[in-house]
């Protein structure tokens, strides 16, 4: 079976949902060849209202479209399916649920979120990161959950719990503008912990902190390490910078459907995590659950003061990642989804032939 995956321009999304899965499948030697491309080559009609006339499928049996959000891509899907090529739509966020105030909310206002739902509705298979996304985008029953995972080469780097330091680094990764309401769920908890462990703890942001000090009422402005766009370097840095990672999420429709990636990355690098009680973090089962500011304060204070306990917890979570959550572990899930897509397309064509006959 030949699979062509058309990735999005966003490096983080493509890394975890396209490039690393493709690498793992190709290296598994299971008789499936996966090719990754930046978009599809098409032939368009001329004029203001141009439409797609033809699509180059590169000889693939299955074409995977990551986050398709345009009418043109829906037209591409229909052309491919008509010639017998199965189409898989890959989605890893609830696009219709991006909250107002989030830097990505324009995807809702512009109608692109609805276009993505249209594409998913006509797909031969939809692959997603969480059960909530499957329920949203695969109501037709043609859906598969393939959770996010971590490449072995990163999970086997020297873990954070083997490092010694007089100052425990508490950290968060991300862009504050992409989490306009999430950090605030910690309330005063982070400041309480930093105050209680003053001199032996520090808070660092790997990314863009913007006005985080004001948002969280912190006495000291967090240290900022600028975002690393190359994903391998970013994940490696997590284990070199942090001893404890925080993963706060406001429990809303968008975040309930969100994957467990941040806590997974922390755990893969031997960083102990304190996290919200979101559905996916609960399903992953790693890290300390925090619901109220007092929970964040207690967990973070304990993690700083009890060095041996923190290391043991981080070591155990790291082992779970090595045993269950490597990219290579997800190979059968990707293969199964693509094979089901091909079967669904063949069935649809047979039914169409019978109807015409």
Automatic annotation (TrEMBL):
Glycosyltransferase subfamily 4-like N-terminal domain residues: 21-148
Protein name per its UniProtKB record: Glycosyl transferase 4-like domain-containing protein
Species the sequence originates in: Klenkia soli
InterPro entries: Glyco_trans_4-like_N
Gene Ontology MF, one: glycosyltransferase activity
Keyword Transferase among record annotations: yes
This protein's record includes keyword Glycosyltransferase: yes
Residues of the signal peptide: none
